[in-house]
Amino acid sequence: MTETSKMVCPDCGVETNRHAEKVEYTDAGADAEGFDPALGGVLEEFHACPDCGRTHARRAE
Amino acid sequence: MSARTDTRPLFIPVVLGTVRQGRMSEHVARFVHAELAKRPGVETELVDIRELKLSNTDEGGGARDVRFTETVARADALVLVVPEYNHGYPGLLKHALDTNLKEYIHKAVGVCGVSAGPFGGTRVIENLLPVLRELGLVTVFWDGNFSSVQKAFDAEGNLTDAAYVRRLDKFFRELVWMAKVLRHGREHVALEGG
Ligand SMILES: Cc1cc2nc3c(=O)[nH]c(=O)nc-3n(C[C@H](O)[C@H](O)[C@H](O)COP(=O)(O)O)c2cc1C
Ligand SMILES: [Zn+2]
Predict the structure, then answer these.
(1) A7 CA to chain B: closest CA distance, Å?
(2) Which of A3, B5, B31, B174 is buried deepest, with most CB atoms within 10 A?
(3) Which domains does chain B have, with CATH numbers?
(4) In this predicted model, what pLDDT tens digit does every residue of B53-108 receive, in sequence order?
(5) Whose CA is nearest to atom 3 of ligand 1?
(6) What is the C-alpha to C-alpha distance for residues B153 and B181, in angstroms, rounded to an integer?
(7) How many domains, in total, are found in chain A?
(8) Which ipTM was obtained for this model?
(9) Which atom of ligand 1 is nearest to the CA of B28?
(10) Helix, strand, or coil here: B80?
(11) Is B173 helix (H, G, I), strand (E, B) or coil?
(12) Strand, helix or coil at A17?
């Protein structure tokens, strides 16, 4: 199990829910540092805010 | 907020997926949008890909139309109205869909296929499913199938076959269920490991 740092919704100040991870292929060239050769792209994590419902993404930790 | 007490309306835009002059899919999209707008607890909007300001010298996020991205970000589900072109989907629809990514993750999608032929766009729907899956959307198992579309609407765009109303109702019920479940999941069900 990997523990990741909490994310807070910038609009509501509420802790978000990390509901998905996904490889982003389109950023592979742009984000050379984040490129994961095993996955063939940059692994991103997706969070939703339980208050406003908005999705926030960041590079997975 | 628990799913039981969640009274927020669902936002489900309908995307008209072709720019062709004389497109019959526009009748379908207007009909689908009007039927969806009648449902309590659902807000909708018709998105015409012809109106999007997408770059044609870039792909993916680099080609995006900010308003379209914002609409998808607000959406809980999408309905795609997609004509069958050589058994596939219009290239410009794919171009438009590719401009977003995080805005789609764990949201529901339903497809209405449109064809001149007898199969109601089933081939284009099957061809589109792997793309929708990779975008992070969750497909429902009901579709809209508009066969021989030139006969399904009159010249003014009025429906000539009332059976479509009942079929669409089944499609919407499944889509709304999936949209509610996924909204609850996005907001409250954490991925394992943090
Ligand atoms: C480039 C092109 C390819 C087409 N290929 C098919 C096809 O494979 N099967 C079919 O049933 N109809 C096909 N059609 C007819 C469309 O399904 C028909 O025009 C229908 O009205 C839906 O498309 P529309 O919204 O552009 O009118 C094709 C139309 C075009 C313009
Ligand atoms: Zn928020």
Answers:
(1) 11
(2) B31
(3) 10-187 (3.40.50.360)
(4) 999 999 999 999 999 999 999 999 999 999 999 999 999 999 999 999 999 999 99
(5) B85
(6) 34
(7) 1
(8) 0.85
(9) 25
(10) strand
(11) helix
(12) strand
